[in-house]
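In the design runs reported in the main text, the only information available to the sequence generator was the tokenized backbone. The following block is the verbatim input for one such run; it is reproduced so that readers can re-run the procedure and compare outputs position by position.
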């Protein structure tokens, strides 16, 4: 059984990870901020439900704050910090500590790889940091990580590709389903915690 994650264990696990490798391919990049805080029952992470917008392939999805790398961003971490400020009003540069980075994830669309890669940066939020949703966000939710680490709420999302229905893994969090890229990021996070010292 997986032990419930706590902040000291998360700090240690991420500190011993090597720097994340970047794709050698010339492609587009995006970055997200996995924001953690100490909550009432344990460690929580911030998820948002994206606003419904025409033309947005992730419209309505549960996600971490994040978005595409802008040429003016010096690094992908700067992208994650900027996007968190724009989408949820958090200033991670002053109100959080960077704990580490998870492996880069290639983005697939319609069953095929794209030239987009997403990097995930894990931050520990200081207590009392102000935050507020932007118009890009339909809902903000602090989620207890312990049940997810134990595999509670695991579900399958039916996805149709070329006329076939393929079940994809996800987490059901109070009727909100986390799947796709965000599910893969959470799985990568839990794998990092489970890695031997």
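Verbatim output:
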């Amino acid at each position: 059984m997986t032990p419930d994650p706590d902040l000291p264990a998360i700090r240690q696990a991420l500190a011993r990870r090597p720097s994340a490798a970047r794709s050698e391919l010339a492609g587009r990049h995006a970055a997200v901020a996995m924001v953690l805080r100490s909550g009432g029952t344990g460690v929580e992470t911030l998820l948002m439900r994206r606003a419904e917008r025409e033309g947005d392939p992730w419209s309505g999805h549960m996600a971490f704050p994040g978005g595409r790398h802008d040429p003016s961003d010096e690094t992908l971490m700067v992208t994650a910090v900027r996007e968190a400020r724009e989408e949820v009003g958090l200033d991670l540069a002053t109100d959080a500590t960077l704990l580490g980075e998870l492996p880069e994830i290639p983005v697939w669309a319609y069953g095929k790889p794209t030239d987009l890669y997403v990097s995930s940066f894990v931050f520990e939020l200081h207590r009392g940091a102000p935050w507020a949703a932007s118009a890009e966000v339909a809902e903000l939710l602090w989620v207890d990580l312990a049940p997810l680490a134990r595999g509670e709420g695991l579900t399958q999302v039916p996805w149709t590709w070329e006329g076939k229905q393929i079940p994809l893994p996800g987490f059901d969090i109070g009727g909100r389903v986390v799947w796709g890229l965000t599910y893969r990021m959470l799985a990568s996070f839990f794998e990092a915690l489970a890695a031997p010292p």
